[in-house]
Amino acid sequence: MIKPYLMFKRECAEAFKMYQEAFDGEMIAMQKYGDMPPNLEFPVAEDDKNLVLHAQLKLTESGSILGSDGKRDYQDSGKVSISVELDSEDRAKKAWNILKDGGTIHMDLQPTFFAKLHGSVKDKYGVTWMFTVN
């Protein structure tokens, strides 16, 4: 099983809440840095205690994403897209409309020769999504 792990800089909780709304997803876990037991070798600043240490969100029956916040400035990558196959045009349009808000459309969600609907969008957090409805 392969699960994409998304890295954010102080935006993971906000992004995962948007993804949960877009896909009517189930939040499996969201642990914060402040939930960790104190460790002198890994001190957590007070400002960082509410950041996400680890999150898991179930998007579809068989697909989940993972994520966390880090200190590095993560650049988005044009080489990776999260491909989501949905069984409903309505579900795809709902998620699409939420994710395109503040994002960049690479290919509009539309009928193609290989699918009822297909499209690609980079959301406002820099994550690229490909949608397919068969």
TrEMBL record:
Q: Where is the PhnB-like domain?
A: 2-130
Q: Which Gene3D superfamilies match?
A: 2,3-Dihydroxybiphenyl 1,2-Dioxygenase, domain 1
Record-linked InterPro entries: Glyas_Bleomycin-R_OHBP_Dase, PhnB-like
Which PANTHER family does this one have? PROTEIN YJDN, PROTEIN YJDN-RELATED
In Swiss-Prot or TrEMBL terms, this protein is called: VOC family protein
